[in-house]
Structure formats: structure tokens, C-alpha cells
């Protein structure tokens, strides 16, 4: 096991106005409720749920972009919920690839600069080999070398997403979190990107947490699937057998695949 979440909870304060501007009532909303989850080495774990179910908030908690209200997160045998991120190089070991590749890539930077930046930041001793590393990264994600001299606006949506993946790979992570990363791609491009990700996972011995609202995209891509509903993990399954499912929400998701 490489990543373990123990009873992770994230509560956000909610301020509501009542009876005029100065009379306000404070309350709380739990976006993530006592989530316990394990990610094994070399595994692709799917995290499926509708919008607003807490999936992205959970990813932000793992990356320490959001502080936990309670619970623990362990990377190997080290706690990462305590805030000591620099001690264990969290940002190097865990990378995030989001849904919107356009906003993730600086529009005025060439792809070469985008890829070289993390290499030089994390491996300054390899600055002289940065170009060679960039070419290797492009090859890994299925892009041609001439992409290095292009700007993000000159690439297709699928190509930009591959650049985002290459940038994540540049720091040699152990875990990559994919937050709706293929949601904006057409079915053909999506299938191609997923095939590439599976190959890269095997080649680099990576662990994936694949967050999506689309159960169908996890069917052949993920080893196990955790279902999140209203901030909670309601079911974790491996066998695609509707008769083995226990939670009503999971069965509803399965029914949408056959409609």
C-alpha cells in the first residue's frame, strides 16, 4: 500500500443571511465525511460519483490544498496531513492532472518551457539534459518532437491534455491523481489517452487515483472502483456484477450503462 486515508473529513463553514444584512447565521457543510481508502502500489483506483459528491475536495485534501477537519492521510509510512509537506517532498511524489488543460498551461509559454520548468525546479543538476528529457516525455505520451516549439493554443484538446500528463511525469512521481482528466475529450481521443496512461503506468510503475463522474470510463481502466455519494464512500468493488452491489446509488449508476 502506498497511500492510505483514515476517516478523512472536510467541513466548510457556511454563512447564511437571515432577517436583514447584519443578522447572520453560521453553519457548516461536510464535503467529505469520514472517508477511509487505500491505494495499492501499481494500482489504478477509480473514484466515481456525481458532481458535488466530494471527489475533488478529497483530491485537494490529499494534496494538502485543503486542510483536513479531521482524519489522517499517510504516504507510505509517513503522515502527510500534518502540513510537513517539504519534509517528504509531497509535490514531487504526488501529481495532479485536472480537467481543464487550457487553464493549466501558460498560454505565453512554449511547450518546451512548460516541461523544462519542473525539471529544472526539482532536478537542477539535470538542467543540461532538460531538452533530452522533454523529448523523452513527449514520446512517452504519444506526441511528436515538434510540439516543443508550439504554444498551447496551437494544440488540440487531446494534445494539451497529453502535455499536462507529460509535465506531471517530469518530476518522476509515484502517484498521479486524475480529476476528470478525460471528461472534455471526445470518445476516440479519450480512449487513446486512457490506453497511453495504462502503458505509462506499467512502464513507470505508477499508482493512479482516477476521479470521474463517468462509470463507463473506469470499466476497463481501473482495477477497483470506489463509489462516492454525498461525501461518503458507499461502496468499493472490483467485479462488474450488478448482483454483487450493495448500495442503491451504485446500482443506479450501473443502470445508466445499459440505458
TrEMBL record:
This is Nickel ABC transporter ATP-binding protein. PANTHER family: ABC TRANSPORTER, ATP-BINDING PROTEIN (PTHR43776:SF8), TRANSPORT ATP-BINDING PROTEIN (PTHR43776). Keywords: ATP-binding, Nucleotide-binding, Transport. GO terms for biological process: transmembrane transport. It comes from Paenibacillus terrae. GO terms for molecular function: ATP binding; ATP hydrolysis activity. SUPFAM superfamilies: P-loop containing nucleoside triphosphate hydrolases (SSF52540). Residues 3-255 form the ABC transporter domain. It holds the Pfam family ABC_tran. Gene3D superfamilies: P-loop containing nucleotide triphosphate hydrolases.
Amino acid at each position: 500500500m502506498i497511500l492510505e486515508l483514515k476517516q478523512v473529513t472536510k467541513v466548510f463553514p457556511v454563512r447564511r443571511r437571515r432577517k436583514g444584512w447584519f443578522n447572520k447565521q453560521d453553519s457548516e457543510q461536510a464535503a467529505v465525511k469520514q472517508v477511509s481508502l487505500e491505494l495499492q502500489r501499481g494500482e489504478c483506483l477509480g473514484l466515481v460519483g456525481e458532481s458535488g459528491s466530494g471527489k475533488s475536495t478529497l483530491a485537494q485534501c490529499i494534496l494538502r490544498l485543503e486542510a483536513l477537519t479531521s482524519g489522517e492521510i499517510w504516504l507510505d509510512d509517513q503522515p502527510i496531513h500534518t502540513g510537513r509537506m517539504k519534509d517528504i517532498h509531497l509535490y514531487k511524489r504526488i501529481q495532479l492532472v485536472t480537467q481543464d488543460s487550457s487553464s493549466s498551461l501558460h498560454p505565453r509559454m512554449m511547450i518546451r518551457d512548460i516541461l523544462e520548468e519542473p525539471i529544472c525546479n526539482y532536478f537542477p543538476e539535470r538542467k543540461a539534459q532538460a531538452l533530452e528529457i522533454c523529448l523523452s516525455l513527449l514520446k512517452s505520451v504519444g506526441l511528436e518532437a515538434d510540439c516543443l516549439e508550439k504554444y498551447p493554443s496551437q494544440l488540440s484538446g487531446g494534445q494539451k491534455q497529453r502535455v499536462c500528463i507529460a509535465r506531471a511525469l517530469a518530476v518522476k512521481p509515484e502517484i498521479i491523481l486524475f480529476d476528470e482528466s478525460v471528461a472534455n475529450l471526445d470518445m476516440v481521443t479519450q480512449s487513446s489517452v486512457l490506453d497511453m496512461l495504462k502503458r505509462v503506468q506499467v512502464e513507470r510503475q505508477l499508482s493512479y487515483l482516477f476521479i470521474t463522474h463517468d462509470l463507463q470510463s473506469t470499466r476497463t481502466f481501473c482495477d477497483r472502483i470506489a463509489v462516492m455519494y454525498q461525501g461518503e464512500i458507499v461502496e468499493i468493488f472490483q467485479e462488474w456484477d450488478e448482483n454483487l452491489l450493495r448500495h442503491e446509488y451504485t446500482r443506479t449508476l450501473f443502470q445508466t450503462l445499459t440505458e
